[in-house]
Amino acid sequence: MQKLKFAILGTGFWANYQIPAWFALDGVELIALYNRTGTKAEAFARQYNVPNVYDNVDLLLDRHAGELDFVDIITDVDTHALFVEKAARRGLHVICQKPMGPSLETARRMVETCQSAGVEFYIHENFRWQTPLRHLKTVLDSGVIGQPFKARVSFCSGFPVFENQPFLAELEQFILTDIGSHILDVSRFLFGEAASLYCQTQRVNPTIKGEDVANVLMKMRSGLTCYAEMSYASILEREVFPQTLVSVEGSKGSVVLAPDYTIQVTTRRADGQRETRYLTATPPDYPWADPAYALVHSSIVDCNRNLLEALQGQQPAETTGTDNFETIRLVYAAYDSAARNEVIHL
Ligand code: 89V
């Protein structure tokens, strides 16, 4: 199959992993890089043998639109809409990092722009591609715990995330956009769409602008109650960054995604006694992954693979713009709920 040619827009911290994650797949050729500060893009171009480097995005797109199949946007959220529009206008398919846009209205416009340009629009939402979460979903789908009625999806950490990603400390809306977009997407992936939600937020760290704690209680359309909790202010006995911990209770048993990728499935035997089976769902190791983020970095490969196979017409993408709009809708509904101290009906 012919390789799809693509350009990367934005060569900050995340490009250190997004680029090698693309190279872990056959079927793509990276032909151009853009970064606002051109020297950063030049360093990546030297490291990965990328032939074209720009500090002007229009120049890149004007010169290469004819040969490009898609662009992968890895810039900060504020430039997502602009770059999506520029690429779509030139007939290029678009992959864009989460969170999709800085407001629900902007996100809606991004989806519409791509629809009217007739190009595919995918969001690089990688958490649902983590090995333990995929295994957990398989357990749920097997029916072994019966009909799930309550769940907790938890990302609580004291990891110094601002050291590698200082811009996160400047966001007026922090944890719900950064981690919430992942955790609420994982909740949708596992339990389907939400019917209503209630959220409370807090800022514990006084040196950052946005909220670093958010507690979201959702009633899912299935009837299940899902408590999604996230915090970057948690000083816990066990630091598990960047693991998402999940527990689900169903009519016939429960399943827990515990630290170290352990999945515990508890059911009743015929004699009424409980029994627990343990599985381990260890993610693949990649030499380029930062050990502190290895779980997340490995999921970039699987997310990219799904999007690439969709662009090649082999299978549908999971995290299309239309699908991810439902996640971003939850993110902004959560802010709305916290601001009004009200339940939001979706
Ligand atoms: O994927 C992300 O949003 C990253 C991290 C895993 C550190 O939160 O910012």
UniProtKB/TrEMBL annotation:
Residue span, Gfo/Idh/MocA-like oxidoreductase N-terminal domain: 4-121
GFO/IDH/MocA-like oxidoreductase domain ranges (all copies): 134-255
Signal sequence coordinates: none
Pfam families recorded: GFO_IDH_MocA (PF01408), GFO_IDH_MocA_C3 (PF22725)
Tree of life domain: Bacteria
InterPro entries, A to Z: Gfo/Idh/MocA-like_OxRdtase_N (IPR000683), Gfo/Idh/MocA_oxidoreduct (IPR051317), GFO_IDH_MocA-like_dom (IPR055170), NAD(P)-bd_dom_sf (IPR036291)
Protein name per Swiss-Prot or TrEMBL: Gfo/Idh/MocA family protein
Species this protein is from: Larkinella insperata
Lineage, highest ranks first: Bacteria, Pseudomonadati, Bacteroidota, Cytophagia, Cytophagales
